[in-house]
Amino acid sequence: MTKLAPVRTIGIFGGGQLGLMLGDAARPLGINTVFLEDAANCPAALTGQVFTNAEFERFESSCDTFTLEFENTPLVSADRIEQKHQLFPPSKALFIAQDRLNEKNLFQELNITTVPFLAVNSLDELNNASHQLGLPLVLKTTRGGYDGKGQFVIKTTQDIETAWQELGDATNIAPLIAEGFIQFSREVSIIAVRSQSGEIRYYPLVENTHHHGILAKTVAPAPNSEHLTEQAQDNIKKLLEHLNYVGVMTLELFVTNEGLIANEIAPRVHNSGHWSIEGAVCSQFENHIRAVAGLPLGSTDIVQPSVMLNVIGQFPNPKDLLGIRGVHFHHYHKDEREGRKIGHITVMTGDDTLDEAVSQAIACLPNKLGL
After folding, report:
1. Nearest C-alpha neighbor of 364 from the set 328, 329, 322, 316
2. The domain spanning residue 18 has which CATH number?
3. Do 171 and 307 reside in the same domain of the chain?
């Protein structure tokens, strides 16, 4: 059997904070990372060389294999790489994740419970969707949109035309997708990693709290979630295997009285897994690098319960924050800007003082995101 040459350099599409943390995870394994990102001063520049889109050929020739930290990586770029090189995850995963209709249709194909939905190409079709799905409903763009952007909650018939003007006429994006509004008790997510040989390992289900569409807090593991774990793992396993996926994937879910309802996937390392840097035996970032490089996967076991808090817009005073027992602070080397993720905090005390330490950490945040 031919022995594969070891991966020395991984090319990563995107150079944000996820790229920064992937680069940090790669270095102890003897693996270099380079990035394709037009912002030369991006966070990932701290861990590896940054190439602009105009330098695509240099980026391509400098790497052994490729991955991404941004699910909106252009499909044309992914396809170009796949013609000559390995790209993990495959472009098929991007095709699914970049379009909410593709995503929901795949959920249905794989018998993964999701919200009722309809494609919307016109105001008449939006009116029809409101009758079929009922109100309230959520109108979303099928492409783009994140952290609560690109969507409109239609509560009454008077909102229908306004929603269409805002998302349909104004953005000229069609089709849109109308999703039935569901009653759920909380939001959770599961992160899993699949190796090139098909081995799958799962991180514990975590509970997420959002504020105006932005992730504010993640609790790992999710409280009282043992009865949900099997369904979550089964759902993400179906997706990983169907897509012949390699690397880390995240599946966001709603908890309802009838069980879990799938919301969306992220074909990359994810904000709700940042706690794993300190809180798991092998972080989501290291396991993604291991999978992409063809190395054995590491343990996803939890070290101790953790709480992750996002730092949005303004930095806390590190002297106040780091004086709290059990706090770990990650600075993304970004400029302060309203609504921007610029860092995160992980709190883990290993005893019953965790809630108190989390409260103290929240008190240090200039933007507390409703926590």
Report:
1. 316
2. 3.40.50.20
3. no
pTM: 0.95
Taking the C-alpha atoms of residue 206 and residue 216, their distance in angstroms, rounded to an integer, is 13
Per-residue pLDDT reduced to its tens digit, 158-203: 999 999 988 876 556 668 999 999 999 999 999 999 999 999 999 9
Same-domain check for residues 305 and 352: yes
Cα–Cα distances (Å) from 352 to 127, 218, 304, 349, in that order, read 52, 18, 12, 8
Q: Say which residue the tokens 């249905």 belong to.
A: 108
The domain of 162 spans 116-180
Scanning the chain, the segments in alpha helix (DSSP H) are: 17-26, 56-61, 75-82, 91-97, 100-109, 123-133, 158-163, 226-242, 276-279, 284-293, 318-321, 354-363
Number of domains in the chain: 3
Same domain for 344 and 206:
yes
Identify any residues that bridge with 176 across adjacent strands, giving them in sequence order: 120, 141
Contacts of 209 (CB under 8 A, 6+ apart): 187, 215, 216, 217, 218, 371
328 and 358 assigned to the same domain: yes
- Rounded CA separation 346/360 (Å): 12
Contact yes or no for 88/291 (Cβ under 8 A):
yes
| Residue 241 included in any domain | yes
Q: Are 45 and 14 in contact (CB under 8 A)?
A: no
Instruction: Indicate whether 73 and 125 sit together in one domain.
Output: no
DSSP 235-300: HHHHHHHHTT--EEEEEEEEEETTEEEEEEEESS--GGGTTHHHHBSS-HHHHHHHHHHTPPPPP-
